[in-house]
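Researcher: Quick test of sequence recovery. Tokens follow.
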């Protein structure tokens, strides 16, 4: 009987440990489009009010993110930053997202006469995450 209780207790704690790990992992990488509201841009900064993980207080906090840490821009094309973190948006003056969209466009300083002064839209889904209320770049 004692052996049965011991195995039951071990199974319970193992199950709790695994579910706790998977819950923490899921919370650490949540899309900010489903867990943040009032998403807006100002210059090269992204602002939002993001939910914290369940059970924490307050339930949502104001967060901001410098897009220069997450993105690069070359010849009007935005892309996720890799090794150029913090250096990729040198020619960008401001970024914007239309309401309800996940796509970002940025105004750039034209490199030549007749060059476009706006980047092609980049979908931020999967590039930026809500990590317990804080916006962050996806880590490579």
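Model:
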């Amino acid at each position: 009987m004692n052996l049965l209780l011991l195995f039951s207790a071990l199974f319970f704690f193992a199950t709790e440990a695994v579910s706790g790990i998977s819950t923490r992992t899921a919370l650490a990488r949540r899309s900010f489009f489903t867990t943040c509201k009032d998403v807006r841009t100002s210059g090269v900064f992204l602002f939002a009010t993001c939910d914290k993980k369940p059970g924490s207080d307050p339930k949502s906090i104001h967060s901001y993110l410098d897009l220069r840490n997450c993105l690069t821009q070359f010849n009007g094309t935005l892309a996720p930053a890799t090794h150029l973190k913090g250096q990729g948006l040198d020619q960008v003056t401001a970024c914007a997202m239309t309401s309800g969209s996940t796509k970002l466009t940025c105004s750039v300083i034209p490199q030549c006469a007749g060059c476009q002064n706006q980047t092609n839209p980049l979908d931020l889904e999967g590039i930026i995450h809500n990590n317990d209320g804080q916006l962050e770049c996806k880590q490579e």
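The first helix runs from residue 2 to 28.
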